[in-house]
Amino acid sequence: MDYNSQRKKLPLPEYGRNIQNMVDYLFTIEDRDKRNKSAQTVIDVMGNLYPYLRDVAEFKHKLWDHLAIMSEFKLDIDYPYDPPTPDILTEKPNIIPYHESNIRYKHYGNIMEMLIRKASELELPEEEKMALIELLANHMKKSYVAWNKDGVEDDKIFQDLKELSRGKLNFSSEDFKLVDVKAPSNQKQKKKKYKKK
């Protein structure tokens, strides 16, 4: 019996062993023109595995790169694109530069802290500013309860709001009534009454 575990390991298993055998066969073709035409045929067959992508220019480039990888970068053909080098298989990805910021209260998040600072600087009519503060405070309460399973007093939210706004937004639970986050939806669910037959 001939088991796959006893055969040569596939560089790109997603194409399967038959495509790999086609790539291996390209090495046996001595005539360069015939080898180039055969390589194009192999690329077409590889593209048929992904028919929704085969006409995309970038996908064609990727197929030729995959052909180079499957041939271990040793196939002597005229590539329509610059063939990759073996280094691409071992090179490490670039380090992503994460933006680090000093978040005072992680349960509110950095965006909430930026919104509070911006709200403290805005010059709005009194009614609009009060509506904005109420929205921010309610969202702070929801965020607090999402990360801390215990309930939270409204005064704690307003204390944090004052601290994050550097004292510019100084309110209390007497100014606003925040939503009860733990309470179920205000809409009463209608219970279906079933009659016994």
Provide the descriptors you would attach to this structure in a database record.
single chain, 197 residues, 2 domains, 0% strand
Order of helices and strands: HHHHHH
Largest sheet: none
Helical content stands at 40-55%
Briefly note the structural class of the backbone.
mainly alpha
Structure in words:
By secondary structure, the protein is an all-alpha fold. The chain has two domains: 11-89; 104-182, no CATH class. Helices cover 44% and strands 0% of the residues. The protein has six helices and no strands. The chain has helices at 16-26, 32-48, 57-70, 110-121, 126-147, 154-164. The longest helix is centred in the C-terminal third of the chain and has 22 residues, at 126-147. It is elongated and about 90 Å long. The N and C termini lie far apart (68 Å). Mean pLDDT is 84; it is low at 183-190.
